[in-house]
Amino acid sequence: MGHGGGGQLSAELVQHVFAPAFGGEVLADLADSAAVTLGGARLAFSTDSFVVRPLFFPGGSIGDLAVNGTVNDLAMSGAAAAFLSCAFILEEGVELSCVARVAEALGAAARTAGVQIATGDTKVVESGHGDGVYINTAGIGLIPDGVDIRPQRARPGDVVIVSGDIGVHGVAVMSVREGLEFGVRIESDCAALGGLVATMLAVTPDVHVLRDPTRGGLAAALGEIAAAAGVGVAITERDVPVPDEVANACAVLGLDPMYVANEGKLVAFVPPEHADAVLDAMRAHPLGARAAVIGECVAEHPGMVVARTGLGGTRVVDLPLGEQLPRIC
Amino acid sequence: MGHGGGGQLSAELVQHVFAPAFGGEVLADLADSAAVTLGGARLAFSTDSFVVRPLFFPGGSIGDLAVNGTVNDLAMSGAAAAFLSCAFILEEGVELSCVARVAEALGAAARTAGVQIATGDTKVVESGHGDGVYINTAGIGLIPDGVDIRPQRARPGDVVIVSGDIGVHGVAVMSVREGLEFGVRIESDCAALGGLVATMLAVTPDVHVLRDPTRGGLAAALGEIAAAAGVGVAITERDVPVPDEVANACAVLGLDPMYVANEGKLVAFVPPEHADAVLDAMRAHPLGARAAVIGECVAEHPGMVVARTGLGGTRVVDLPLGEQLPRIC
């Protein structure tokens, strides 16, 4: 399971199995989406499969995730998603009404995100193989002129900003999973971030890094950026916005909110001279109302994320090995 | 199972469930790939999931199919595939050596097809869910200027050409499936058709329709074209190239080669004034050596495919309802 969790084991699978076999330079970039040039157009191109259980959870569904996950991967290159592909793997015997509900949620999410579903595919596998509904989406979008957002561009001095509360989506999905129910109603904050990113880029095209902290949570996102750019990241734990319900649920379950998946949040590395203006713009957007500075990029401890704890000490924030909670995207 | 078979049930799923939910105009085109414009570039965009069993079969593997299937969908718009996304859904416990073999086959097929794997994703589902390895690929490629290839462009008078022997891939996969082995060694002819299509377009950009007769076979491909363009298609059964081994295997199993899936073959509708030159160009290409004219597009019986049989009679070639053989792509 760990190899799909977005942590170290996932990274090893890509580095040791897929990258050598595929031999791609673009793939080696390790960004959420690839930047490619075709017919003179600079495009972001990304894909994600969705295997979340249950298919419907408070605040969303696999259909919302399938749209927002790929739209957000594109947004992390600064691109507005223009077209999505959508491929279903259905298990024989799944209720058509369930497929229709998922499709309706997916279509509604696409309209909200302003992206068009351009092409699709459906496969059916025998009952007992597959798992009801799996969805893959791939997306393409134009990268605006002058925008060059990649993990490698993190620089010492950059201000690290998150767009809002973390851990909400992961805990929302977990809260309805068989055997893990607990007495809190937390709704997923799953959302498409293209509009928020456009708002930020209107302040300055020189945003250095954007990342949506999905699988592996904020810890994995920061760790990957530190490793890719060869910089250190220093954050202040108490500045990371974690809602009380999420903190309580995590305490009960022995989880660290830093490692819980999100969908609908982003972390940004912004040059210090633009940080205040970008933060103001984010807070003026509905999806960035609770945006906060959580730390900075430093020259010390390259490749490593260090958190100042509430007690005044520091701790190393490791890249998670596997995943705390499987199948939440 | 029938809803994933590429026949009538698949079409109904798209028309009644997905199209209304997604509300896409591009999707309604029903071509193998969508033609979209982005940043001034005219792009073909397509996706396919691959759930074939077994993962390795004579002449190929799920890795080859995952590349060639999407490359060929793009080629059916006249586009040379430039970039692929590649997403794996792995079942917990699948051997990493098996994943590596699949990845190597996939990488090799991409190099042969001249396409770059630009972005990827890996998910792992619990043991007992999923089925070893599922792969989704999506692809983008440039559509050359002056090329407008779509099912709707079929016109009475068009000459119908297939690029070679049909039914080979489907029978090859079936020949190694548990319980269906029979004493023939047939290798899959799975191949990337971008080069063959470029050869044809060098003769004339005015090829009207291209289609790779995958799920549902040649019968479904011709039926869909007839329906999309509101034309009739008349073919001569004995002119359809079917190798003896395929014909024999189909006879034993009670299958019709017209409905068996292919991957690495195409059917073309070409204006009569260009047909001879296009056929000559195809035959000069390794993947078109056994290309043959199998019939023509007619104004009679719109939406219907009619075959002249060996006995001098005619029969209607129906769109298959479901699928003769599940999971061969």
TrEMBL record, chains A, B:
It comes from Streptantibioticus parmotrematis. Gene3D superfamilies: PurM-like C-terminal domain, PurM-like, N-terminal domain. The gene is hypE. It holds the Pfam family AIRS. It comes from the Bacteria. This is Hydrogenase expression/formation protein HypE. Coiled coil: none annotated. NCBIfam families: hypE. Belongs to the HypE family. Residues 32-143 form the PurM-like N-terminal domain. Residues 155-301 form the PurM-like C-terminal domain.
